[in-house]
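User: Predict structure, ligand WT7.
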Amino acid sequence: MSSEEISNLGNESRTFAPSAAFAAHANAKPSLYTEANSDYEGFWEKQATALAWEKKWDRVLEWNLPFAKWFTGGKLNASYNCIDRHVLEGRGDRVAFHFEGEPGDTRTLTYKDMLREVSKAANALIELGVKAGDRVAIYMPHIPEAVIAMQACARIGAAHSVIFGGFSAESLLQRIQDADATLVITADGGFRKGAAFALKPVVDEALLGTTNVRKVLVVQRTKQETAWNADRDIWWHELVERQSDVHVAESFDSEHVLFILYTSGTTAKPKGIFHTTGGYLTQTSFTHKIVFDLKAETDVYWCTADVGWITGHSYMVYGPMINGATQVMYEGTPDTPNKDRIFKLIEKYKVTILYTAPTLIRTWMKWGDEFPNSCDLSSLRLLGSVGEPINPEAWMWYREVIGHNNCPIVDTWWQTETGAIMVSPLPGITATKPGSAMGPLPGVDATVIDDEGKVIGNGHSGYLTLNKPWPSMMRGVWGEPERYRETYWSRFEGRYFAGDGAKWDEDGALWLLGRVDDVMNISGHRISTAEVESALVSHESVAEAAVVGATDAMTGQGIVAFIILRGGIDHVEGEALTKDLKAHVAKEIGAIARPRQIMVVNELPKTRSGKIMRRLLRDVAENRAVGDSTTLADPNVMKLISEGLQTAKSED
Ligand code: WT7
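Assistant: Predicted complex:
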């Protein structure tokens, strides 16, 4: 984010007070804040009682900074809480998912249906030898079997590691190896942009590497031609369909590992963020209820995120299912077959709560109001945003064109690491400002501090930190306990550092200002500069690479790479080469990491200690005058880079 934008944020005078009608029936009550402030542990303990525990906990919190354990001694099963409980309490006929495939095929799954399908899948995993404590990699299109597979793992106490279907074979292999998964659940492919794409060949390629994967369970989604390894591969419909539909869920310790989810950090190696059971389920279900104001009997809730990201885990597979929500699940892209697809689905399923990302909202704005205007969106009563700061223009458009000035907007700040929403307005309580996430939720202790760790007040910006453990916090980085402490708890003593800049405005509203570290945010997805750099230098023509995230009107940030070619490689090949390099990065990491722009340079700006000064490159990438470069080892470098690029531009 550029400095001008940062200084503009937080100067917002428009405020939208909650409507009295909404407030009268809101799940959230102002007393939640006072309760949490007066008895922090008691507050979270109270929220935990909403879950079904086979055995109650002995202690609410064991805090050994930075390692927390919540509800120790307690035992429960995640899947039982998401599914069985609803069936046993008479809610089995309620729809859990209205699934819509991209080609237009539909499936309706009630909670009873989910119990049957998940039980069969759990029995299938047991037949394959999966045991509690094992890791299962899930690499799927966005179809119900992805949810069923996750729930089946949770049911038998195996940790799932979902890898987003857009990741490459290389990324998939790395994650399978790191978690030491023994089973991969995948599909022949899925539907996207009006065509079938293949997933199974990516798994085949990944498994050419060394792993302990014994079996690959394959859902038949597209019926495309699929290469088969008879010793290893099994069709889901052959194995799962013949299983008993009865499976008794076993309870596990509150601190039993529920899942691992890999996310980008500041180094090239992704971090395996892992979450455990009792605390995670407590906070995801609680926040889902108060932030989205879910009324399970009447609402139709739609979170547009893929299950491959934390948003899909917390606000599709766990939080909403614990709350017995009826959800929409859509497989494909928002412009297939037409740019009104999402709006058509809102109309068709009478969606009442929509949770989506700013990048999609800005895309809709660009496409034009005629698409939402041609559909009946009057069922909507609440709108949510997540993944990156939402700019005030997009927020206003969301409110007016999608919400018809009738829906509270919740801008929810959180992270893979936090597991649940931490900062958000509460509908019916908080007066909102366009673009602001407003403030920490009850039970969350957030502070903005400066470089020296001094607490910052209204009207100032600094770093967002969290000061107390919270139930759904990550429990560590898989296999790297020290990395957890170093990354999150070492910069400011006693505080969790989120990596985001933030500002309290004059009225005390909180504004998120984007990442302050070497992590980019592309369409709400985290990609580290180091990861892309490492992919670039793995190409034979690249000697050195520096990557920055430059402001992008649509995707929030776009990836811009500066590269130095190896000796003997001709600059003039320029265009073919940069095309090749973009494809190379997509192949190494996945299409989301494809650079928007690659610039060939002769030098990179480095400090005397050899650290690349990305700030200066960002100035170039965003077409600004280059800032202070006095700490460069060679102060002329930026001049050379700018001049070199000028020449390159005039040659175009
Ligand atoms: C990073 C976490 C949380 C699910 C999606 C992303 C950015 C997230 C917001 C928001 C401003 C936001 C932050 C954060 N972010 N939500 N409402 N306003 N920034 O999860 O991949 O773990 O990324 O996304 O920079 O640190 P993630």
